[in-house]
Design brief:
This protein has 222 residues and is an alpha/beta fold. It folds into two domains: 139 residues, 3-Layer(aba) Sandwich (Rossmann fold), CATH 3.40.50; 61 residues, Orthogonal Bundle (Arc Repressor Mutant, subunit A). The chain has eight helices and seven strands; from the N terminus they run E-H-E-E-E-H-E-H-E-H-H-H-H-E-H. The two termini are 30 Å apart.
């Protein structure tokens, strides 16, 4: 599906590397999706048709306030972009006002098509094809951490307990402990305090910033 004018998209996550990875993935499709704002730890300020919200390290399920992501006079449609696309979790997000829940395993052309369909009024839940890996980038990936392992270490670096991490990520406490063990082996630490220091040294602390997207000047007045 294509439209005559690009869909205005704001990208939202607390981690700059995640937002930049999304921007790079969508850049080849600038005639279809115009990136007007890149937000790390800051609310969207510019008018946008769609907010693409990456859930890495973010509140999920009933902990996510969808209305806080909707901006502009037309109230931007919110797309939840997640690797953990469970049916019950997706239903919770849709019930709370999200327009779509999309897997991070979707190829970029499918993601762009889904953004256009949401802008046209559809509600979507799209899982990834079998065997697909997450797209984009995340802190800790270059050091060998999977997205979930990196997310858990990032939240440890933010000072969250295992129980709080489970609530934030919608994982069981046993899954959180499993990711901690595997992450610790990969990064060569054996205590929580060492993991915090490793996270600080490797960019796993969230940073607050708001930047115009590459297409902002073409489509959004100051």
């Amino acid at each position: 599906m294509t439209t005559d004018t690009p869909v205005l998209v704001a990208l939202r996550n607390d981690y700059e590397i995640v937002v930049e990875g999304l921007a790079q993935m969508l850049a080849p499709f600038s005639e279809r999706v115009a990136l007007v704002e890149l937000d790390s730890g800051a609310p969207v300020a510019r008018p946008a048709d769609v907010v693409l919200y990456d859930t890495f390290g973010q509140p999920q399920g009933e902990h996510l306030d969808i209305s806080s992501l909707q901006v502009g006079p037309a109230r931007a449609k919110v797309i939840i972009y997640t690797w953990a696309l469970e049916a019950t979790l997706a239903a919770t997000w849709i019930d709370r006002g999200a327009a779509a829940c999309l897997s991070k395993g979707l190829p970029a052309p499918v993601l762009v098509d889904a953004i256009e369909r949401v802008h046209a009024g559809e509600r979507l839940v799209l899982p990834a094809p079998a065997g697909e890996n997450p797209r984009g980038r995340w802190p800790g990936r270059s050091e060998g951490l999977s997205e979930r392992e990196a997310e858990v270490v990032a939240l440890i670096a933010e000072g969250l307990s295992n129980e709080a991490i489970a609530g934030r990520t919608h994982l069981s406490i046993n899954s959180v402990k499993s990711y901690i063990r595997s992450a610790y082996r990969k990064i060569g630490v054996d205590s929580r305090s060492q993991a915090v220091l490793w996270g600080v040294d490797h960019g796993l602390l969230a940073k607050r910033s708001r930047r115009p997207g590459p297409d902002e000047e073409r489509f959004v007045l100051p």
